[in-house]
Sequence to fold (288 residues):
Amino acid sequence: MAQQEHPSVTLSSGLHAEIVGDRFVPGAFELVVDGTPQSHVSLDDPTALFFEYIQRMGHVIDRLKLPGEPLTAVHLGAGALTIPRYIHATRPGSRQQVIELERALVDLVRTELPLPRDASIRVRYGDARATLAQLPAGLRGTVDLVVVDVFAGARTPAHVTSAEFYGEVGALLADDGVVLVNIADGPGLAFARGQAATLRYAFGNVAVLADASLLKSRRYGNVVLAASREPLPVEWLPRLLAGGPHPSKVLAGHEVVDWIAGAPIATDATAVPSPPPARSVFQVRGRD
Fold:
């Protein structure tokens, strides 16, 4: 059988992006960039989060402020706008800004996976770090949530991993604001530990959410780091654990310090990109 063609675009980086239907979940689609699944969206139910790391982010977002209360959010990296859709669905009236380097990617997503007409989601185009300075001045010190999910292909660029970068992100945050960072790393988790150390230096408090076996450094996968100036409420922890996906692990307080194990803080002078995965790590569901 001939392979079905999917809506696609070539990005300015030369990478190939396409929208692939999920043949197992009606009304759901994946954004695949250079063979790497980067986002999963259900148009029928935007509250259905598929990727494990996105589910973990969703659990933290659910704990912010009062249930259903609108948020002010900034997203670095658009993907298929999965988290902005989730926030709009669960917290109507939220104000959201998205920064994305690839205009063609957003055009593809908006055409094939349209946003709700009433969603207050503003997309700005440019490098994630450089474009922070172009956000409205009124946002400084008022943002409830910053999501950092920046990838060039399957790797996070070095310049959005440093203490200086996180200092610029922190200028946006309200006193009780939270930064969520998606980290992709392999056995040993040296990059993830370094990012936890860097976020702890920049904000003071870090929680680590991941699959329990991943934290034992057995395989490549995603670690979610939640950073804040104020300690995350203790009552959050059992709820974050119960939310899964299972087996789930949440590290906080001294457990994070033990897990960091002296990993160095990344600076603009020392930061490196996240490690590349083996091509065998990713398998695209729904491809004909």
Summary: The radius of gyration is 18 Å. The chain has eight helices and twelve strands. The first helix runs from residue 52 to 63.
